[in-house]
């Protein structure tokens, strides 16, 4: 297993960090909320809502990241170190994205999102 593949595993679990944050900030760790967590999500406000939004975005972007890593490995034109570093930086960008979302730093969050998307595209460019 390469470092990049381990980063895919980490990225697959990162949305759940946002889920836990949304529930913790929104008071959702109760039996009542556990029966219908999506109803709780619909009522969230402030930092809890932003954590939920970060969760949704993470679920949206992770498949593209996983595909990019797999394709870069399959094509085989890029050095493994390059693929690993891109993957590490992507995971770092996703952690920063969550921090920016929770802190309500919208312009910085958008910039970090753009960096993450550029990193996904980079897997294709370095493999071409």
UniProtKB/TrEMBL annotation:
<keyword id="KW-0472">Membrane</keyword>
<dbReference type="InterPro" id="IPR023352">
    <property type="entry name" value="MAPEG-like_dom_sf"/>
</dbReference>
<dbReference type="InterPro" id="IPR001129">
    <property type="entry name" value="Membr-assoc_MAPEG"/>
</dbReference>
<feature type="transmembrane region" description="Helical">
    <location>
        <begin position="110"/>
        <end position="127"/>
    </location>
</feature>
<keyword id="KW-1133">Transmembrane helix</keyword>
<dbReference type="Pfam" id="PF01124">
    <property type="entry name" value="MAPEG"/>
</dbReference>
<protein>
    <recommendedName>
        <fullName>MAPEG superfamily protein</fullName>
    </recommendedName>
</protein>
<keyword id="KW-0812">Transmembrane</keyword>
<feature type="transmembrane region" description="Helical">
    <location>
        <begin position="86"/>
        <end position="103"/>
    </location>
</feature>
<dbReference type="GO" id="GO:0016020">
    <property type="term" value="C:membrane"/>
</dbReference>
